[in-house]
Each structure stands twice: as C-alpha cells, then as structure tokens.
Amino acid sequence: MKKLLLSILTIVVLSTQTNAQDSTAFIAANDAYSPTNNDMYANIPTGSGSNLRLTGDWTIEAWINILNTNAEINLIETYSSGNTGGFAIRLINNKLRALQITNPSTNLSIVTGATALNLGVWNHIAATLNETTQELKVYVNGQLDGTISTSLTTLNLNSVLRIGTRGDSPFTRGETIMDEVKIWNKAKTEAEIQAQMSGCFYGNEIDLLAWYNFESISTNSLIDKTMNGNDGTFIQYDTNSFTGGAYYCANATVSVNEVEKNIEMSIYPNPAQDVLTISSNEAINELFIYSIGGSLIKKEMLNNNQIDISSLKKGMYFLLINSEKGVYKEKFIKE
User: Fold this and answer.
1) Which of helix, strand or coil describes residue 19?
2) Residue 251: inside a domain
3) Domain LamG-like jellyroll fold: where (predicted)?
4) Residue 208 falls within a domain, yes or no?
5) I need a labelling partner for 60 at 20 to 30 A (CA). Which of 194, 295, 300, 303 fits?
6) In this structure, how many other beta carbons lie within 10 angstroms of the beta carbon of residue 4?
7) 55 or 314: whose pLDDT is higher?
8) Is 277 helix (H, G, I), strand (E, B) or coil?
9) pTM of the model
10) Smallest Cα–Cα separation from 154: which of 109, 120, 204?
C-alpha cells in the first residue's frame, strides 16, 4: 500500500502546468532568414567523461518550426571523420532523418520519415535508438514516421555536439526555429513521447541527460537545464536570433481542502489497457483524470472499485481521488 500525507495538493506534471513550458526559441538560420544575417549555432563540448558520449539506447527530441524548404536542414548532430561514431538528426526535403553512425563515410544507418513537414508551424520531432530491438526510429508529433533495423551499437568519441549545424562542420544549413531540445539515454516509447512532448520539466527526470529550452538567455552561454552540466556556447551570438517558443508553461494547479491524515490507497494494474482497480481503506467520493498537461479529461464515479479507461488515448495521466480523509494523487499509463 502507498501512504501519502497531503496538505494542499498542487498537481505539477513533470514541472507541469498547462500546455507549456517555454516562451523563447532559437533561430538556426543562414542568409536572409537570420535576423542579423548571422549563422548562429550552438556548440556543446563532449570531451572525455561527458555523459553525452552516448553508449546504448538514446532518444533525441525537439520542437521545430521550419522557415524555408531546404534540401538539408541540420538540427542536432555530433560526428567527425573516421571511426568516432556519433548520431545526427536533420531534415531532408522537410522529412525527418536520423543517423546512427560508426563511420560517417563507410558505416552508418539511416532512417527517413514519410511525412514532409509544413512550413510555418511547430512540429515535435524525435528519434530513438534501441540496441535490444536493433531499431532506429523517427517520430513526428508523437507518431511513428519511419523505422529501420540496425545492428550498429552506439559509439560517440566526438568532442562537440552541435545544435543548428552539421556535426562535422560549423556550416549552418537550413532555416528553422528550434525549441525544447532534449537528449535521453533511453529509447522512449511512442506512448512516452506522446505523453511528454508538450509537458513541462524540472530537469531532474530519470534518464534525461541534457535539456535546452533557450529561455532567459542574455549572453552567448547555452545552459543545460538538467544537473548534468552539459552547457554550451552560441557561436556568432546575437540577441535578435531568438523568438517565440513552441509553447509556454504556466502553473496549472488544482487546489483541495487541507488534510492532516494518512491515506492508504493503491491502483493497479499500471500500465493498464481498459480498467484500473482501486484498493482503498477509505470511502471514495469522486475521481478525476487529468492529462499530463494538467487539463481535466473526465470525472468518474467508482464502480465496484474499478474505473473504465478504455476510451482514453494511449499516454500518461494523473488520477486524483477525493476521499473522506483527503486527496490521493497517482500517475498511470494507458496502453
């Protein structure tokens, strides 16, 4: 049984709040599409000992807004000549491409998505590498968009990771706005990507190696919002190369009456497909299901200690249970 002592309950979803987290984004552009004609990009050092020298599974994700069609738009990349390994996330004719690299000339795996992204709108992109299943995948707006099999294991001996330019050269290609760049040392599932792509974060999430939201930037320093210290530097820094972000995080709270008693309650199975069962030593008055972004999805009455969740889309949710002794909150995953 779980025991929870609550005073005033505030739902915070992965730092969460409403549909949001960030109001500023980084313009990675060249030529006329840069506000100052600067080819600004970011360098993140990945020297010996850096946890961005990835091994094993990984996920790389971001929000992007394409300003102009280009044959190749480089987004998040690290590789160089020889057998130094690395990875790359880029657009080819506005389609998402991911590369798992051992040698960029002779030994690499490439997957390209099926969807050509529209200009002038925000899209969430993600790529994952799973060494166990030997799959390299790309996702667009939470939907699987391409997959290939690869036997290449993850290797990264490169000294720098770049955002907004090629991995092997500080040559900016393409015109796009980037926001909410995150690097994980796990292969996130489709459900996890969907549940978190518009969520708000603390920076202490498990398996999150680096997070760049481009917020509150006043110098050429790019600060990693996790505790891992993967800070970087903007090259050709200019304050005009920032604009409105993909979404904004503002605290969305659900307040309840103050309670001072222990509540014993558990829910199972978790994850679940159709039905959640609640075990409790207290009488339950009401049930509320909230999205990962803090929005109320539905209000339920308990029926034989069970809740029908079959109509919910796959993803992560919060269950708020109002009992005689107070309020119980639990996160669950709908499969």
Assistant:
1) coil
2) no
3) 56-191
4) yes
5) 295
6) 15
7) 55
8) strand
9) 0.69
10) 109
Domain span holding position 327: 265-334
Write the pLDDT tens digit of every residue in 236-262.
888 878 887 887 664 333 333 333 345
Residue 182's nearest CA partner among 158, 152, 161 is 161
Q: What does the DSSP assignment read for 155-201?
A: -B--SEEEESS-TTS----SEEEEEEEEEESS---HHHHHHHTT---
Q: Are residues 219 and 277 in the same domain?
A: no
Confidence of residue 38 (pLDDT cuts 50, 70, 90): low
Number of helices (H) and strands (E) in the chain: give both, helices first: 1, 24
- Same domain for 62 and 138, yes or no, is yes
Query: In the predicted model, what is the mean pLDDT of the chain?
Result: 82
Would you state the structure tokens that stand for residue 175, as one six-digit string? Answer: 């015109």
pLDDT tens-digit readout, 211-240: 999 887 889 999 999 989 999 999 988 887
* 205 and 175 housed in the same domain: yes
Do residues 329 and 224 both lie within one domain?
A: no
For residues 301 and 298, give the distance between their C-alpha atoms in angstroms, rounded to a whole number. 10
Give the confidence band of 1 by pLDDT, cuts at 50, 70, 90. very low
Q: How many domains does the chain have?
A: 2
| CATH number where 116 lies | 2.60.120.200
Cα separation of 159 and 38, whole Å? 24
Query: CATH number for the domain including 289?
Result: 2.60.40.1930
Same domain, 45 and 127: yes
206 CB contacts (<8 Å, ≥6 apart)?
none
The answer to whether position 7 is within a domain reads: no
Cα 57 to Cα 138: distance, rounded to the nearest angstrom: 14
Which is nearest to 238 in space by CA: 220, 223, 250, 253?
220
pLDDT range class, residue 3, cuts 50, 70, 90: very low
Amino acid found at 104: P
Measured in degrees and rounded to the nearest 5, phi and psi for residue 31 equal 55, -135
**And the tokens for 158?**
């490169």
229 and 274 share one domain: no
